[in-house]
Every structure is written in C-alpha cells, then in structure tokens.
Amino acid sequence: MSKPMPEISSDAGELRDEPFEPEVLQSDLAFEGAVWNVRDDRVRYGDGEIRRQYVEHTGAVAILALDDDGRVLLIQQYRHPIRHRDWELPAGLLDVDGEEPLTAAKRELAEEADLVAADWEPLVSSWTTPGGNDEVIHIFLATGISAAPSAHAREDEEADIRIEWRALDEVIAAVLDGRMRNGILTIGVLATAQRLRDRG
Q1: What percent of the chain has pLDDT over 70?
Q2: Are the C-beta atoms of 81 and 174 separated by less than 8 Å?
Q3: Domains of the chain and CATH, by start
Q4: Cβ(82)–Cβ(119) under 8 Å?
Q5: Which of 55, 157, 159, 192 has most Cβ atoms within 10 angstroms of its Cβ?
Q6: Minimal CA–CA distance to 58: which of 75, 24, 83, 33?
Q7: Do 191 and 199 touch, CB atoms closer than 8 A?
Q8: Which of 110, 189, 192 is nearest to 153 (CA)?
Q9: What is the average pLDDT across 159-176?
C-alpha cells in the first residue's frame, strides 16, 4: 500500500523561509572549541520534545571576484574534515566584534588574495548546513579588481593557498560535472551567472 503524498500548498504567494521559534527547554554548552562551540538543546516541538546538537557559528562572508575578462578568482586549500584541497571562493569568519559583512569581505579578499575591488554588491546569503549549524554566509560580487597595497603573511592551511583565475563558464561546468563540490563556490558562481543574465 502506497503512502499518501504530503499536502502541496496552493499558496501562490512569494516563496520565503518562515521564522519559527519553538520553546527551548534547555540549552547547554556541550563542547567549547577553539573556533566554534557545540550546543545541546532540548526543544518543545508539537506534542513532544526533541533534542538537537549543533555547531554555534559566528557566520561568514565569501567573495566572488570577477575580473574584466569574466574570470572568477579561485583559491585552493586543504580542508581537514573532507581530506581534500578543494577549490573555493575567498572567504572568512565574521569574528570581529561589530564588523559589518561588507567590511569583512573586503578584509578577507585582501588577506587571502592580496586584492582589492572598486565595486561591491551583495550577491546572495545562505545557511550552509541548517541541520547541523546556524552559520549564515553572505556572498558578495566584487569587480574592478586590482592588487592590494601590501601582501599579507599567511599560516596554517592558508600558507600554501593556490590561486587561479578561471572563466566563469569553465567553473560552472566543473561544478555541474561534479569535479568541484564546494557548496559556497557552487552558489556563488550560479548566482553570478544569473545576475549577469539579468543584466543582459
């Protein structure tokens, strides 16, 4: 016997994520980390109670830097959880008190790639893993690219960052072919392609 299909909303209104704040019965610091903490929450949900652990995240920014030839700035660095040196967009944490996302994006582009941009615009914001952390990342489109006045010293995984400029279409093809799997990179290049199409 087949299961009934879930009810499909016939609401033709604007698609939008819906805020919802059930009662948190208890919230404990399960683990205090060097960068992020893990929280352990008990939440009243419906007629019962659920327990969820999640990473408490500062939030982050990423930059889709596009040069005058339509090439995307890519960086490659080692990511220990996935045991890969994956291709990414320049990005960083919102870990400076009171710093606005745009200011952080400008700082990260200079720190990770020794570049500055004349023009900045918000591209898209995304929750990276809403079932496992509360991180929201703000992706900016940066154009009018030039060298920063000075180079930054880098350490740890950033010490051997590889930097390349590749055509936007080439990067999208690599994403869709499964050769590049970074989620933020995927969102950034697809959103940029749509933004450029919208502009004609």
Answers
A1: 90
A2: no
A3: 24-56 (no CATH), 60-199 (3.90.79.10)
A4: no
A5: 192
A6: 33
A7: no
A8: 110
A9: 94
Confidence of residue 5 (pLDDT cuts 50, 70, 90): low
CA angle (131 as vertex; 125, 135 as ends), nearest 5 = 35
Q: Is 72 exposed, middle or buried (0-12, 13-18, 19+ CB in 10 A)?
A: buried
User: Known catalytic residues?
Assistant: 158
Residue 198, classed as helix, strand or coil, is helix
Tell me the residue length of the chain.
200
Q: Which contacts of 169-178 are long-range, i.e. CB under 8 A and separated by 24 or more positions?
A: 171/72, 171/74, 174/87
DSSP 21-47: ---EEEEEEEEE-SS-EEEEEEEEETT
